[in-house]
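pls design
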C-alpha cells in the first residue's frame, strides 16, 4: 500500500467512526497537525509507532510488509530455508542417519511436509527435523512438530516398509541474532519442550537411545576451515558438532 492510500484509508476509517481530525488525534495522543499529515499521505516523518497509534484510534491495526520487485523477497526467504534444510540433512548424514528431505505426507486425513526425516533402521529410530530460518513464535511451531512426531511412525511405515519404535524431534534454528532474541523470549516454554541441548544432543545424534526432543542452532552458510586437500569424515563431524550450547555449524 502506498503512502497516499494509507492516508485515504485512515480518513475513511475516521469518517466511519464519526470523528473529526481533532477528536481522532486526541484519541491517538497525537497533534491534529500530525493526523492531517498522515491523511494527506505525508509519511516521511511519521514513525511506525505513530501510525499504529493513529490506526488504533479508529479501531484498526497495521501490519508492515517488506516487498521486493518480482517477488524476490519470497525467493530470498525460500533460499534461506533451503540452505538450512541442506545443512541439517548434512549434519544427520555425518552422524550416520539416513536423511530424507522434504517428505510430504497424507496420513489419517492430515497433510503436511517434514523438512528432514532422519532414519536409523538398525536402531528402529526416526527423527523429525523442523528447520526455521526465521523463528517467529513457539506455540505454532510446537503444534506443528507435535503433529509430525505423532504421525512419523506411520509415515515411515508407508514409505519404507518398517515402523520405528522410537520417534524423536529436533528443532534447528538458523543462528541469527533475531532468532536468539526470540528464543530468549520463549525460554521457559522451549526449555520444557526441547530439554536436550549441547553435548547431550550431540552424543544422542551419534548414538540415539530412546525418544528425545532437542534444539540446535546452525550457521547454514558456514564453511569449515580446511587443513589439507581433503578432510576426513571424522574431522568434518568434529567441526560440525563441536561448538558450545547446542550451536552447530554445518559445512
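designed seq:
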Amino acid at each position: 500500500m502506498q503512502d497516499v492510500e494509507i492516508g485515504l484509508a485512515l480518513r475513511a476509517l475516521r469518517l466511519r467512526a464519526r470523528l473529526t481530525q481533532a477528536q481522532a488525534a486526541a484519541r491517538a495522543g497525537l497533534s491534529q497537525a500530525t493526523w492531517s499529515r498522515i491523511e494527506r499521505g505525508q509519511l516521511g516523518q511519521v514513525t511506525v509507532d505513530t501510525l499504529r497509534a493513529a490506526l488504533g484510534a479508529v479501531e484498526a491495526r497495521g501490519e508492515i510488509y517488506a516487498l521486493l520487485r518480482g517477488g524476490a523477497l519470497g525467493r530470498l526467504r525460500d533460499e534461506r530455508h533451503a540452505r538450512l534444510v541442506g545443512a541439517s540433512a548434512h549434519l544427520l548424514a555425518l552422524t550416520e542417519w539416513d536423511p530424507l528431505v522434504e517428505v510430504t505426507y497424507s496420513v489419517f486425513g492430515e497433510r503436511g511436509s517434514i523438512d528432514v526425516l532422519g532414519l536409523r533402521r538398525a536402531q528402529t529410530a526416526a527423527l523429525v527435523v523442523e528447520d526455521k530460518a526465521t523463528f517467529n513464535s513457539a506455540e505454532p511451531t510446537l503444534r506443528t512438530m507435535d503433529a509430525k512426531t505423532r504421525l512419523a511412525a506411520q509415515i515411515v511405515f508407508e514409505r519404507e516398509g518398517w515402523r520405528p519404535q522410537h520417534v524423536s524431534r529436533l528443532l534447528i534454528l538458523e543462528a541469527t541474532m533475531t532468532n536468539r532474541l526470540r528464543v530468549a523470549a520463549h525460554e521457559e516454554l522451549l526449555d520444557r519442550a526441547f530439554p536436550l541441548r549441547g553435548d547431550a544432543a550431540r552424543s544422542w545424534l551419534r548414538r540415539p537411545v530412546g525418544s528425545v526432543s532437542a534444539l540446535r542452532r546452525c550457521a547454514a552458510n558456514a564453511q569449515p576451515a580446511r587443513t589439507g586437500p581433503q578432510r576426513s569424515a571424522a574431522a568434518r563431524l568434529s567441526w560440525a558438532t563441536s561448538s558450545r550450547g547446542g550451536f552447530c555449524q554445518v559445512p
